[in-house]
């Protein structure tokens, strides 16, 4: 398939997202002086706001692209958990399947910012693994979800995706013929063998393999050979996206951009790549759209989701540069 043409309509796609969720809280202001109490800047707060983060940001990206989403996760039985549910309820095409846990804190990352620069981050969280009974309840919930086109496992090492839970989810998806898409973290990096699409970043790959100096293509091939996914997508930052298959390894460069914040770019890439795969788009188009979308969110401060209309405009602009 050529990469020319309009973006596909994703409104008929239903994705299930399973992963660690959180609230990204921002306190923003101006710095005009240094504290007399310690050599630290004094931030004069101008505004504060909260956004859905972690696996919820993946759900927001899918929603922004027009897909229907079911989000499975856990939150604390606390005020922040209530806030998370309320915020999620504002998105009509996202169905939440949240399990509240009384002895668990809802993860909140608070970023102190000035002039679009991070000065400090404060985390409130519990990262112990969920209990077996919670895993069983979430699996039952997954089994009751109808017409699932793909399952995304979004791992942030916060305790939801245990080794056993990962295997059970993937076994269920495999039995149902549902493709699985993985955005891993280091703790369970090699526990996703046989997934459909595996999407680490370069730093995660090199850390998992204990490498420092090696060609990206060679590192990607080592991970691919060990996990045997259908596709391995390794994000390379400003260098673009490496796509590893059984037959080949190709790097798709990205356009130069002014980077404001790389937070959330991986969430956007896994969202676009999974929808492109489900829709049967070519490898070239999957990589191209993933690069455009990931780059787009890096131009904006904070964790934000992709803008479908901007993505279409940028895609059209890129296509107009191609030879007629």
What is the fold's blueprint, element by element?
Blueprint: E1 14-19, E2 21-34, E3 41-54, H1 55-64, E4 68-76, H2 79-88, E5 94-101, E6 108-114, E7 117-124, H3 132-144, E8 150-154, H4 163-176, E9 180-183, E10 197-198, H5 202-208, H6 216-227, E11 231-235, E12 241-244, E13 249-252, H7 265-278, H8 283-298, H9 308-320
Parallel strand pairs: 1-4, 1-8, 2-6, 4-5, 8-9, 9-10, 10-11
Antiparallel strand pairs: 2-3, 6-7, 11-12, 12-13
Helix pairs in contact: 1-7, 3-4, 7-8, 8-9
Task: Write up what this structure looks like.
- There is one protein chain.
- It is built from nine helices and 13 strands.
- With 324 residues, the chain is an alpha/beta fold.
- The strands form two sheets. The chain has a nine-stranded mixed beta sheet, with helices on both faces. The chain has a four-stranded mixed beta sheet with strand order 3-2-6-7.
- Helix 8 packs across helix 9.
- The protein is globular.
Question: What features would you highlight for this structure?
Answer:
single chain; alpha/beta; four-stranded mixed β-sheet; 324 residues; globular
Spatial ordering of strands, largest sheet: 5-4-1-8-9-10-11-12-13
**Silhouette:** globular
The average pLDDT score comes to 89
Strand content: 25-35%
Question: SSE string, helix = H, strand = E?
Answer: EEEHEHEEEHEHEEHHEEEHHH
**Largest sheet features:** 9 strands, mixed
Q: Name the structural class.
A: alpha/beta
Specify the helix fraction band.
Answer: 25-40%
């Amino acid at each position: 398939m050529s990469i020319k043409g309009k973006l596909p309509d994703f409104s008929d796609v239903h994705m299930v997202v399973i992963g660690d969720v959180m609230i990204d809280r921002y306190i923003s202001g101006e710095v005009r002086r240094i504290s007399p109490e310690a050599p630290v800047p004094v931030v004069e707060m101008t505004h504060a706001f909260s956004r859905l983060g972690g696996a919820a940001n993946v759900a927001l990206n899918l929603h922004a692209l027009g897909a229907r989403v079911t989000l499975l996760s856990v939150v604390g039985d606390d005020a922040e958990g209530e806030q998370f549910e309320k915020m999620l309820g504002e998105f009509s095409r996202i169905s939440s399947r949240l399990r509240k846990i009384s002895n668990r804190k809802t993860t909140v990352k608070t970023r102190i910012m000035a002039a679009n620069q991070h000065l400090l981050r404060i985390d409130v969280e519990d990262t112990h693994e969920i209990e077996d009974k919670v895993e069983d309840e979430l699996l039952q919930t997954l089994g009751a979800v109808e017409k699932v086109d793909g399952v995304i496992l979004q791992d942030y090492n916060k305790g939801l995706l245990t080794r056993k839970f990962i295997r059970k989810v993937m076994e269920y998806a495999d039995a149902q013929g549902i493709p699985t898409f993985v955005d891993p973290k280091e703790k369970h990096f090699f526990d996703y063998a046989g997934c459909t699409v595996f999407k680490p970043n370069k730093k995660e790959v090199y850390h998992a393999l204990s490498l420092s100096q090696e060609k990206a293509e060679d590192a990607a091939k080592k991970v691919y050979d060990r996990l045997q996914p259908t596709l391995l997508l390794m994000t390379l930052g400003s260098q673009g996206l490496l796509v590893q298959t059984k037959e080949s390894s190709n790097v798709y460069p990205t356009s130069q951009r002014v980077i404001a914040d790389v937070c959330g770019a991986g969430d956007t890439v896994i969202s676009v790549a999974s929808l492109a795969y489900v829709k049967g788009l070519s490898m070239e188009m999957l990589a191209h759209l993933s690069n455009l979308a990931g780059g787009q969110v890096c131009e904006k401060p904070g964790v934000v989701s992709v803008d479908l209309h901007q993505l279409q405009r940028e895609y059209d602009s890129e296509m107009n540069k191609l030879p007629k």
